[in-house]
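Support request, please re-run this one:
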Amino acid sequence: MKTDIILSGVGGQGILSIAAVIGEAALKEGLYMKQAEVHGMSQRGGDVQSNLRLSDEPIASDLIPKGHADLIISLEPMESLRYLPYLKKEGWLVTNSRPFVNIPNYPEIEKVNAELDKLPHKVVLDVEEIAKEAGSVRAANIVMLGAATPFLGIDYDKIEAGIRQIFGRKGEEIVNMNLKALKAGYDLAREIQ
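Re-run finished. Output below.
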């Protein structure tokens, strides 16, 4: 088993929380994990990206070469396009459909969507809307994690356990909100897949 994942978005969207939950779940699954993070001007809404490599064998490098990512998880549609050169031909993109317009020359969303439509393996969801329906727009990143879970190669219950571990200190209400968001994203991705 080997899964190479690129996580992308902009600062404040919860990319690193997704990485933490996947990492916790991978450890519970008995997998090796390497992670490399690249932070842009995250406090100003700059791009944030993380390479996450999971394997049942030791991993040499924490960086994913171009054309080798099995999965891109992106909380921002234009940011997902930025990392497409890293995606394998048979890889999956799981991305938010709602743009985070943080630059004056942000491309027209129709053009971004046209590029996304060219991909054969994708799940595109409005995670903020789904998170709001699940109880809190602040859990949009966990909706995204739920939508990506079918492609991770890690059992769903291990992802749930990762959420309990990472968010447990924030209280039962926060844990339950995130578990509900995880399930909402997971169920929708399975319908699309």
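The CA atoms of residues 28 and 99 lie 34 Å apart. The chain has a mean pLDDT of 92.
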